[in-house]
Amino acid sequence: MSKLLLNAQIVNEGTVFHGHLFIQNQVIEKILSATDDYSSLISEHTEIIDLSGYYILPGLIDVHVHFREPGLTHKGTIFSESRAAVAGGVTSALDMPNTNPPTLTEKELDEKLAIAEKDSFVNYGFFVGVSSNNLEDVLNVNPRKACGIKLFLGSSTGNMLVDDDQILNTLFAKARLPIVVHAEDEKRINENTERIKSQYGENPPISVHPIIRDVEACYQSTKKAVELAQKYNTKLHVAHLSTARELDLFSNVSLLEKRITSEVCVQHLWFTEQDYERLGTKIKCNPAIKSFADRNALREAVNTGLIDIIATDHAPHTREEKAQTYFKAPSGIPLVQHSLQALLDLVHQGVFSLETIVQKTAHNPALLFGFEKRGFIREGYFADLAVVDMNTSQTINSTNILYKCEWSPFEDYTFKSKIICTFVNGNLVFRNFTTPQFKHSTTYQL
Ligand code: DOR
Ligand code: ZN
Fold first, then answer.
1. Is the Cβ–Cβ distance between 283 and 333 less than 8 Å?
2. 201 Cβ partners below 8 Å, 6+ apart?
3. pLDDT digits (tens, 9 = 90+) for 79-116
4. pLDDT by residue (tens digit) across 323-341?
5. Which atom of ligand 1 is nearest to the CA of 98?
6. What single DSSP character describes residue 280?
7. Among the options 119, 313, 384, 389, which is catalytic?
8. Which residues contact 220 (CB under 8 A, 6 or more apart)?
9. 411: pLDDT strictly greater than 90
10. Rounded to an integer, what distance in angstroms lies between the CA atom of residue 149 and that of residue 125?
11. Ligand 1 pocket: which of 157, 189, 265 to mutate (most atoms <8 Å of CB)?
């Protein structure tokens, strides 16, 4: 069975052009311009899909998700969250190790890979976590089984904090996989917490979150990680930058020259501290959403190349968990289904170009994590594609939220654009032509 996608605006590698894609055996076999004759490609086994008026983007590679399996399946599963992901145009996802049990050894990686092979709608990769007592395991993990090493320099959901300098030095000196760091200074956060508790007691307003997890906590910790990587020439990716100040620690040379790269997540590009009043603990996440000036600096850094990747840190918790008071409510926001729609709104607002979105969500993730034949619309590459209608709006509500936790910070918000369908390895896995429909296909370990 082959597929011919006709008459779309195709966004790839800095350009947008009108054309057609011919897909066969999971790959993009041919890219044609709008005026090319495609009749010789059609056989009785060709499915023709007219995409007039729509854009085709390389499917998003979200390098930072928490799908919660195993052990936290009341919040989400690989099945439920990857299904939400394809409905958002995401075709590959890299999942974090703070599950239960945490992913600290090859055995736990094998267990996750087995679940994903059976249940995942998207191509997948798993990070192995480093803790205070698994350094040998992490350094010796089969690099084909893990996409990177996740290091928490500040504790968050799951408590996988590593603060022993000797472990950190050995890790940075010997790691064969890229290290992805969550950088927030624990000591500083604890001091800020004590101060806030003495001021407000046990139930402060949510607006204290960026005061507890403040700019300085992010800056000091990111600086420490960057200095360790410079000392040992380690491949380091700093997750979810949230402050203008941290940007001083990065450069905008071309991606292929970088050993140290950076990521921003959609929530830090979208919300500001003014949103705490309206959304409360729903937008409590680590690192915290900070000021308007921070958000604007992060947006600008995406455009100048100081920031290489846009991800989500998709981190679902139940409504009941989030409804608790400030200190008790867990940090994390479900986002994987709505990141592309949010970014397309920012395109409508003139903040980013479509080409930049595609670079930061597909091209750069593929290059940085070494995924072969993905992340670009090129002949011979896997047909991982998101099709969007830039000009049909969609209001987010309980009828279309697919997360297991059944809520979103975007509830009742109307996005200007809509995801029409998603292809993973050439298969139409999600379509929203009239009513949403899903189909499982064969997915791959990245
Ligand atoms: O807000 C967050 N939630 N930050 C993290 O680092 C972890 C995540 C989660 O797993 O809930
Ligand atoms: Zn995370």
1. yes
2. none
3. 999 999 999 999 999 999 999 999 999 999 999 999 99
4. 999 999 999 999 999 999 9
5. 10
6. G
7. 313
8. 185, 188
9. yes
10. 12
11. 157
How crowded is residue 231: how many other Cβ atoms within 10 Å of its Cβ? 11
Number of C-beta neighbours around residue 416 at 10 A: 16
- Cβ of 66 closer than 6 Å to ligand 1, yes or no, is yes
CB 20 within 8 A of CB 38: yes
Q: What's the CA gap between 265 and 339, in Å, rounded?
A: 9
Check pocket membership of 281 for ligand 1, CB cut-off 6 A.
no
pTM exceeds 0.70: yes
Is 50 a catalytic site residue? no
Q: Whose CA is nearest to atom 4 of ligand 1?
A: 286
Residues of the chain above pLDDT 90, percent: 94
For atom 7 of ligand 1, the residue with the nearest CA is 157
- Ligand 1 mutation pick, 221, 331, 403, 405, max ligand atoms within 8 A of CB: 331
Provide the CA 185 distance to its chain's centre, in angstroms. Answer: 23
CA atoms within 13 A on the CB side of 299: 19
Lowest mean pLDDT among 174-178, 277-281, 424-428, 442-446: 442-446
